[in-house]
Each structure stands twice: as structure tokens, then as C-alpha cells.
Design brief:
This protein is an alpha+beta fold. The protein is built from 10 helices and 19 strands.
Length: 420
């Protein structure tokens, strides 16, 4: 068990895991993710496609072995922190124990100091405390003990960061909702409904879009309605969901009539179809809308046009362009496209562990600050029989810099120095 523990807490094991994870991420960048076997066979060949699918290289970041590597890394970090915790607590306590201070190594020292107080002050040490034992009296001061915890805190932050990312990937849910103002759409299997109250496009003076903003309301059977606005780079947060303004497209009103009487009407977004209720075997598909359409035979004539496809019993029965005022006629029925408008496409995401990952990132930053900018240092002065003092200093990190600062403090107070 001890050998297993030593292996799991070793630096070499952590480095191997990091290299493997980096290699997996490289594969994930090189191999297109989320495609079918047929796509991989066409792109890389059948043998490579079989290997990709067998090793889950088509979805690396959700594969069991990727989570296993991340789990072993988390275990390594957790065990490292647990093993080091008792010794760190002891080191932190010893840092303010005079007996331990007297036995600590010395980074730099000064001899024959008339008054050590200016030295403590020049090094910006806390107010020194007096101690005396075994006939030895002196002063000591400790600064930046928190710096001892820099690596430990950094490991803890990385652990939380990996856990937050891993758990987030395992429980992550993402949905797409699109429509025009007035539409109510279910949000996947969440039991919530998203209502599009308004959709506005702010434009610059030259007519180009500056911002897209959707006013939305999310409600549910057991959830009170919450309203907000989602715009580009400014998602809405409603009922624990992040709702992003992702893109936009064109929609149009499709009307089916007979002898001037409207029988059916619906707003279709490009890419949607509508079964014709009066003709059950017939459906119309809205392919695209062209706001600036110029027919090839008359390029001077500019306007808008609708591209549609008719399906009869699941087979294409016709496909054409409709100009303003034109209609589709099937038997005695008329199908008309009108009122073009832009719809909003919203990306709805739910990740319950985002806060854990953010907290881990913040803790990593704190650990780095403690490790690199919070250098522990101990300064103590012992009284000699001649009434002069000997000053000693110790810093486990940045010892050369600390020694230089200590000697600079001596030079800054020459009148207080006296040599035999």
C-alpha cells in the first residue's frame, strides 16, 4: 500500500498524466469530433474510421478513458495535498516557535549590531517579539507564513478546476430554441418553456447590424416566470440556465387558402416545413429567403424572393422561387408566402458546476500569488555579552534576494553598526 501511495503521489506520475491529457487534447484538435463512421471513413479511410470509433476518438472529451485520466490526476492532487498537510501545519507552527527558530538554517546574518530594531524595520518585518530561554535572550519576527501554502493551495485549485470541468462535462445540457416574437418553445426535456417576447436588431448608420437582442421569458409548470434579455456577448440567466443570442435567420408567414378563405396559417423559419391539413399527403418546405433578389433575366428588377420545396408523400414534387405577389396553386388551394421577418436562434446551456470550476481557477491564482509573491522569512536577533546583537535571517524561497536586502539594511544604518 505504501508503494502504491508513493506512486500515486509522485511527481513523475502526475507528469505522465499531464502528458497523456495533453496528447488527448491534441488528438481532439486534430480529429474532427462528433462525426459519423461514414464521415470518418471518407476523410481518413475505413481502417482509421474503425480505430477512431473503437477508441472513442470521435468524442474524446466525453470518453471513459479521458475521464479516467482526469480522475487519476484528481486522485494524485488530492493525495499529495493530504500527505503534505500535516507537515505544512507543523512548519507553519514552527515558524513562530522560538526553539525551532534557533535551530533553523541561516540564509544571511549580521554581526555586532548596536540596535536590531532598525534592521527589522528596514526589512518591513512585523513588530519583533522578545523571547528568552537557556540563558539566551533575543527578538524574533516572522513574515509571510502564508507563502508556505502556495503550492498546496495551487494544487487544491487545480483539483477543483478539474472536478468542475469534469462534472460539468458529465452533466452538461445544451439546447437550441429559435423562433419569432410570440412563439413559445419547450426547452428540451427540462420541463421549461421559453417565450420570445421581442427580437430587435440595432443597426449602424451604414445599415450593418451592431447588436442583436432577444427579450425572453422562461416559465414552467412549477416554476414562476422569469424574464430577461439575451444579446451577443451578454447572455441571460434564468432558472439556472444561460441563454445566449447565437444567430439569426429569416422567417415568413405561410398561408393556405381556398376560394379566398384562409384555411391554415403559420410562421415558418427557414429550414422548417408545414404539412397541408387540407391535403394530408402534401407539405411545403421553406428553404430560404432572399431579401435582395434580382432575376437573371432582369437584373435591374430587385426585390425579395422565397425559395420553397413541395413534398408529396415524402418525395419532392416541385421546387421554385416565389416573387412578391406570386402564389403556389395546387388543385383549388393557394399557398402564399408573406411578411418576411428575422427570427432569433438562442443557445440554452445548463452547467451546474461552472461555479466550482471558477472557484478552482480563483484558488489557483491565489496559490500562485502566495507561491511567487509571498516569500516566507524569519528574522531574529540574539543579544551578546558585549551589549551588541547578532542578527540572523532565513528565507526558504528567494534566499539570495533576502540576503541582499539584509545587508542593504545594514548599510542603511551604518551609525548603528560597531565592529571589534
Amino acid at each position: 500500500m505504501r508503494k502504491i501511495r508513493d506512486l500515486l503521489t509522485s511527481m513523475s506520475f502526475a507528469i505522465v498524466l499531464l502528458v497523456l491529457l495533453a496528447a488527448c487534447c491534441a488528438f481532439g484538435s486534430f480529429i474532427t469530433q462528433g462525426q459519423t463512421y461514414e464521415w470518418y471513413a471518407g476523410a481518413y479511410g475505413e481502417r482509421a474510421a474503425v480505430l477512431i470509433m473503437a477508441l472513442y476518438l470521435d468524442d474524446i472529451y466525453h470518453s471513459w478513458w479521458f475521464f479516467a485520466l482526469g480522475g487519476f490526476l484528481c486522485l494524485d492532487l488530492l493525495l499529495c495535498d493530504l500527505v503534505r498537510l500535516p507537515s505544512l501545519i507543523r512548519r507553519t507552527k514552527k515558524a513562530i516557535d522560538p526553539q525551532s527558530i534557533l535551530r533553523s538554517p541561516v540564509t544571511a546574518s549580521l554581526s555586532h549590531v548596536a540596535d536590531p530594531a532598525p534592521v527589522f524595520s528596514a526589512l518591513h518585518m512585523p513588530e519583533p517579539k522578545a523571547f528568552g530561554q537557556d540563558g539566551v535572550s533575543g527578538l524574533f519576527s516572522v513574515k509571510n507564513r502564508a507563502g508556505l501554502w502556495g503550492a498546496w493551495v495551487c494544487h487544491l485549485g487545480i483539483l477543483l478546476l478539474i472536478l468542475g470541468f469534469g462534472l460539468g462535462q458529465m452533466t452538461h445540457m445544451e439546447y437550441t430554441v429559435y423562433g419569432v416574437p410570440g412563439d413559445e418553445k419547450p426547452i428540451g426535456d427540462t420541463g421549461l418553456t421559453l417565450s420570445i417576447d421581442d427580437f430587435r436588431i440595432d443597426r449602424r448608420e451604414d445599415g450593418t447590424a451592431r447588436q442583436y437582442t432577444a427579450s425572453i421569458t422562461v416559465s414552467g409548470k412549477n416554476a414562476a416566470a422569469q424574464s430577461g434579455k439575451a444579446s451577443v456577448n451578454h447572455p441571460a440567466a434564468l432558472h439556472g440556465l444561460k441563454i445566449y443570442q447565437n444567430s439569426t435567420g429569416w422567417a415568413a408567414a405561410v398561408t393556405v387558402s381556398r376560394d379566398g378563405e384562409t384555411l391554415q396559417e403559420k410562421v415558418l423559419c427557414a429550414g422548417e416545413y408545414m404539412p397541408i391539413q387540407a391535403l394530408p399527403e402534401l407539405s411545403v418546405f421553406f428553404n430560404a429567403f432572399y431579401p435582395d433578389y434580382a432575376p437573371a433575366e432582369n437584373e435591374a428588377l430587385e426585390g425579395h424572393a422565397y425559395l420553397y420545396t413541395l413534398y408529396y408523400r415524402g418525395q419532392i414534387a416541385g421546387m421554385n422561387i416565389l416573387l412578391p405577389g406570386e402564389v403556389i396553386t395546387v388543385d383549388d388551394y393557394t399557398i402564399r408566402f408573406s411578411d418576411p421577418q428575422e427570427y432569433t436562434l438562442l443557445q440554452v446551456k445548463q452547467d451546474r458546476f461552472t461555479s466550482l470550476a471558477l472557484m478552482g481557477g480563483l484558488i489557483v491564482l491565489i496559490g500562485l500569488l502566495l507561491a511567487f509573491y509571498c516569500q516566507p522569512r524569519t528574522l531574529w536577533a540574539l543579544s551578546g555579552q558585549d551589549g551588541l546583537w547578532n542578527v540572523y535571517g532565513f528565507s526558504p524561497k528567494g534566499g539570495a534576494l533576502f540576503a541582499e536586502q539584509l545587508h542593504s539594511a545594514q548599510e542603511a544604518t551604518p551609525k548603528l553598526q560597531k565592529e571589534e
